[in-house]
Write a structure and sequence with these properties.
Helix content: 25-40%
Mean pLDDT: 96
CATH topology: Nitrilase/N-carbamoyl-D-aminoacid amidohydrolase
Structural class: alpha/beta
Strand order of the largest sheet: 5-4-3-2-1-14
Number of domains: 1
Strand content: 15-25%
Number of strands: 14
Largest sheet: 6 strands, mixed
Distance between the termini: 50 Å
CATH superfamily: Carbon-nitrogen hydrolase
Length: about 300
């Protein structure tokens, strides 16, 4: 399996512009006959970096409310067909795609940090909403649920994916390992300091390949009309530095992107290596001890109301 990790900058808070970059990256990967393409966390239409570098926790502040409204407007509503062109491109290029999106709630204006799994023949297989936003993210994103904790089949291989610090959550990882994936995708805002260690750890713990994707973002990527632009660029000029990396089941780094570069990295995976490494440790097989340890996963999609007819 040939895999690609995309390390680009979003067309920040511009949904259509970012989706065009997504398709462009897919086409570039298609030139090398890539099977799997991974994009960063909330790549469409950007990670809310202002939560950590402005006065985001001030209650009822006009600039913060305006910024949030701009974020909502740029977010993705899956049921509205916003990803239709990406689905069509995946079909044309015969690629499985993991795409990080800021997902807009159909019933309101809440935003979820979501990871969309797109199959080249079956279309959108799942939308996984991040279980727990991290730190400043909680000012921007709603809690997700377990509906997306599903591994997907592609070309006879199981794939899994998690958002950012979900990859540090032991039970979230265990829920994925139990489904037998051989390739795991992790998506991030963009920081080599985090992705390098975590990716090697997850690869060795799960005895699987890890494809990690992180974004880059600099001051020049922040649009002039963004309500908090001046506050952001007064603090720093670089907000995300990448960190995209591909790791083998034994912890060997197969490919790693240069810091701050907009690039795509690739690796050819020998999937038989997974079974070889699980010879001495299989976290969901002969080393799992289900008679002693167990995990229950609630996969119901949570909404604001449940309607029962009759």
């Amino acid at each position: 399996m040939r895999v690609a990790s995309v390390q680009y900058a979003s067309d920040f808070l511009n949904r259509e512009g970012t989706l065009a970059k997504v398709i462009g990256a897919m086409e570039s990967a298609g030139e090398t006959k890539t099977d799997l393409v991974a994009f960063p966390e909330t790549f469409v239409s950007g990670y809310p970096f202002w939560a950590d570098v402005t006065d985001a926790s001030f209650f009822d502040k006009p600039e913060q409310k305006q910024a949030f409204a701009q974020y909502v407007d740029s977010a993705v509503e899956v049921s509205a067909g916003h990803l239709d062109n990406v689905v069509a491109a995946a079909a044309d290029l015969k690629q499985f795609v993991y795409l990080g999106i800021a997902e807009r709630s159909v019933s309101g204006t809440s935003i979820y940090c979501s990871l969309v799994a797109i199959h080249p023949e079956q279309g959108i297989l799942g939308v996984h909403r991040k279980l727990k936003p991290t730190f400043g993210e909680r000012l921007m994103w709603a809690d997700g649920d377990g509906a997306g904790l599903v591994a997907h089949s592609f070309g006879g291989t199981k794939l899994s994916g998690l958002n950012c610090w979900e990859n540090w959550m032991p039970l979230a990882r265990a829920a994925m390992y139990a489904q037998g994936p051989k390739v795991h995708v992790s998506v991030w805002p963009g920081s080599p300091a985090i992705t390098h260690d975590n990716s090697r750890f997850v690869a060795q713990e799960g005895r699987l390949f890890v494809v990690a994707s992180g974004a880059v973002l600099r001051a020049e990527h922040i649009p002039q009309d963004f309500a908090l632009r001046d506050q952001m660029i007064d603090t720093q000029s670089r907000f995300a530095s990448g960190g995209s990396i591909i790791v083998a089941p034994d912890g060997t780094v197969l490919a790693e992107a240069d810091k701050h570069a907009e690039t795509i990295i690739y690796a050819d995976l020998d999937l038989s290596m997974v079974d070889q490494e699980r010879h001495n440790f299989d976290p969901s097989g002969h080393y799992s001890r289900p008679d002693v340890l167990g995990l229950t996963v609630d996969r119901r999609r949570r909404g604001p109301a449940t309607f029962v007819d009759g």
